[in-house]
Amino acid sequence: MSNLSVNVAGVEFKNPVIPASGAFGYGREYEKFYPLSILGGISVKGTTLHRREGNPPPRIAETPSGMLNSVGLQNGGAEKFLNYELPNLVTKDTRIIANIAGATIEECAQLASMMNGTAVDMIELNISCPNVKQGGAAFGTNPNTAAEITAAVRKATDKPLMVKLSPNVTDITEIARAVESAGADAVSLINTLLGMRIDIKTKRPILKNNVGGLSGPAVFPIAVRMVWQVYNAVKIPIIGMGGISTAEDVIEMMMAGAKAIQIGAALFADPFAPIKIIEGLNEYCENNNISNLADITGTVKPW
Ligand SMILES: Cc1cc2nc3c(=O)[nH]c(=O)nc-3n(C[C@H](O)[C@H](O)[C@H](O)COP(=O)(O)O)c2cc1C
After folding, report:
1. Which of 58, 110, 289, 294 has its CA 20 to 30 A from that of 184?
2. Which residue, by CA, sits nearest to atom 11 of ligand 1?
3. What's the pTM?
4. What is the pLDDT confidence band of residue 257, given thresholds at 50, 70 and 90?
């Protein structure tokens, strides 16, 4: 067996495959299919200070090679995460990434401080949700605000801090550099791309929120391009995501510069996708005489 382990900002993952925030809940439904210990880690559903109902339905629309969602950070709130979900997750022998989001900088800092002293391995600060009116992408599309929120959260927590970037910007490297200078230990990218669909019979947008975030295979080349650009712009490690559905996609994303990867939309098409991908990564390493998968990060040879 090849060594699939990767280290991101001091956190050791047994393999680079991590279900993405919002596509896996807290693993409860999936552990009926396979033990969660197979996974490198889990990025939990975006957690806010207080419980949120999310946006009204319909909030999912299919698209060619992907999907739009406007869930809007539905979750049970920080207390529920810490008292109900985390105690279950710590028994699963996998890394726990707490994905947090807030309407204000203070709220994000408070959430991060609540993770201190808990079993959370890493914080993923979501400054890129396109589906909420306050906070979300508003923080992540301006380098000054992105730096300000990163610095505040950095001060509030001793956990490794990863900042999740929005693709809905002209130059993602500008935001990546801003959060790196403000103290981020890692970045994850990409969140969803803002999109829209219309029912031509009713002339109504399919999503009640009118617009939503596009993810799935359709966004993969955009994600690879952005990971590659950010890899060349910052020194901190990258967790790459956006449209990954096969082991080959993971290799490509790692060659572009990702140390680990997350899988979102692919889980809805196939709940076993992470398991198949881990098997595929083992096969790839064996067939190509790669003893440490981590060695392929950033090995693309640009023309
Ligand atoms: C239904 C759904 C809910 C999501 N919820 C969150 C969330 O709560 N927090 C977050 O940071 N990203 C969230 N995302 C974004 C994903 O984590 C990921 O960044 C994005 O979907 C791109 O990956 P994919 O193409 O593999 O889905 C969500 C995505 C989907 C499809």
Report:
1. 294
2. 126
3. 0.98
4. very high
The C-alpha torsion from 251 through 252 and 253 to 258, rounded to 10°, is: 60
What residues are labeled active site?
Answer: 129
Q: Is residue 302 part of a domain?
A: no
What's the 279 CA to ligand 1 centre distance in angstroms? 23
The number of the ligand 1 atom at minimal distance from the alpha carbon of 43 is 17
Compute the mean pLDDT over every residue in the chain, rounded to the nearest whole number. Answer: 96
Find the mean pLDDT for residues 108-136.
Answer: 91
Number of structural domains found in the chain: 1
Test site for ligand 1: of 65, 108, 191, most ligand atoms within 8 A of the Cβ: 191
303 within a domain of the structure (yes/no): no
Specify if 1 maps to a domain.
no
Per-residue pLDDT tens over the stretch 200-249: 999 999 999 999 999 999 999 999 999 999 999 999 999 999 999 999 99
User: Residue 17 — left, alpha, or beta (φ > 0 → left; ψ -120 to 50 → alpha)?
Assistant: beta
